[in-house]
UniProtKB/TrEMBL annotation:
Residues 56-78 are annotated as: Disordered. GO terms for cellular component: cytoplasm; mitotic spindle; nucleus. This is CHAT domain-containing protein. The lineage of its organism: Eukaryota, Metazoa, Ecdysozoa, Arthropoda, Hexapoda. GO terms for molecular function: cysteine-type endopeptidase activity. Signal peptide: none annotated.
Length: 78
């Protein structure tokens, strides 16, 4: 069965583009993996080096929850 023109091609990416976002970076599916998080952060730090203003703002959104993860590691550790 072909849906052809019946499928509406609208989603989150289009909303960001309409809002004048200069670019969109993301994965094609939901990924909740620490290695993927590190890869994304490393890529963003090389692409957009952090400024002092950004470092201040990031300190406000760092996780406040200090409980260990299920694997026994502390949050934010490798």
């Amino acid at each position: 069965m072909s849906l052809g023109r019946l499928v509406e091609n609208w989603g989150t990416a289009q909303s960001y583009l309409i809002g004048c976002s200069p670019c969109i970076v993301g994965t094609l599916w939901a990924v909740t993996d620490q290695d993927t998080d590190r890869l994304a952060l490393n890529m963003l730090h090389h692409w957009l080096p952090p400024t002092e203003e950004m470092k201040k703002r990031m300190s406000l959104v760092e996780p406040k929850d200090k409980r260990p993860l299920r694997n026994g590691k502390k949050r934010g550790s490798s």
